[in-house]
Amino acid sequence: MLAFTKKTNSAALAFLGGGAFWFAIGATYGLFSAIDLVAPDFFQNIAVFVFGRVRPTHVNTVIYGFITSMLIGCAMYMVPALLKTRLWSERLGWVSFVLWNASVLSGPIGFPMGYTQGREYAEYLWAFDVTLMLALLALIVNIVMTIAHRRENSLYVSVWYFVGTAIWISAVYPLGNVMWHPSTGAMPGLLDSIYLWFYGHNLVGLLLTPLAVGAAYFVVPRITKTPLFSHTLSLVGFWALVVLYTHIGGHHLLQAPIPNWLKTISVVDSLMMFIPVGAVLANIWLTARGKTSLLWKDPAGRLVLFGTLFYLVTCIQGPVQSLPSVQRLTHFNNWVIGHAHIAVLGFSGFVALGAMWHVLPDVCGKKIWSQRLVSLQFGLVMIGIVGFFVVLTVAGLIQGGSWYNGETVYRSLPLITPYMVMRALLGLFIIASAWVGLVNFIMTLRHGQPHISTPIEEAPS
Fold it and tell me: Where are the domains positioned within the chain?
């Protein structure tokens, strides 16, 4: 085992496998929460299955266990490939893997038993905040040292995004989880909401988004065999992301008595997100111009391509729903849940899956066991996520319209019951896609045909 931890790309493979595993677990917990919304008494008040416990288990396992783990695994392969060198320390990569998964595992074990800080996206107990931070610090050291020992002078934009992600989230995570208050993990009063949504929105914008964008910038030029359209435009998107995204969490608190200047900044910066999003999508799509058929025919490329389309939808809907006049109908209801699913699973989740299937043969030295199963996974998750988006958006508008016209929450619930049933049924497609992917991953490692890895020199530069 110790010898394996020194093998090239072994840490990347571990993160990729962890991501595939946690996708299956996280999606399954999502079904439990969907059942609670359809039939609250189904589990007979069994404590480990109540909505308030399975929902954070689902959310954290998907964000940290599935998407982030999978994209970190991709980054641990892509960074050395782009820099034409080896990862500085495979064993340090394994240290990151063990610490990271200790935090993720604490969710499915601890949350159902009530061991949580009870703050959205910040539920991990303090001890596991510490292990996650240590994992991030080990990751930063590994990436920086790999850069320091590189044989490629230029730093391709994917490297910028991966390094930036590790540094940004290492700064944001302790603030959002209020790690200097271990006993509560929270600030007093309204100040806690400001801290929480500064962190909660940046969890998407400074963790999932830059990891997914960095992976897309690697995969699309490689599949289309086309140089990146514009390195300058890629850096515009990079810097605009960190400048604008960090301030938009306040648009979740427009109904709260936070300072008006903070509300104004959050709305204005939300609307200005068209700059980094437009720069990224224009760059990727212009790179693939005339060669989108190559992305469509490649099962991994197809996932990344549709991930970028969902990114467009997400970043049209997000700024619009930040407007106070729109929030009168959309806030605190299923509209926001539909938006969250299209952002997390639709954008970063699709890109994570596509990037994983693209690099896996180079990482493990074996061809994908079944490309048909990759296509099946794409079809299943596509049905699920599009259905989720439509059903939850409609349910949210029904709720918002009812409340706006003075109806009580209790009397509006029967109106959305059919949509909650459809949500649960659509979730079965996503769960099936996760388990299909896990089986395909395992079978690739066990029975995949030998694959000659693409030389490092052929990575996009």
Answer: 1-153, 304-453
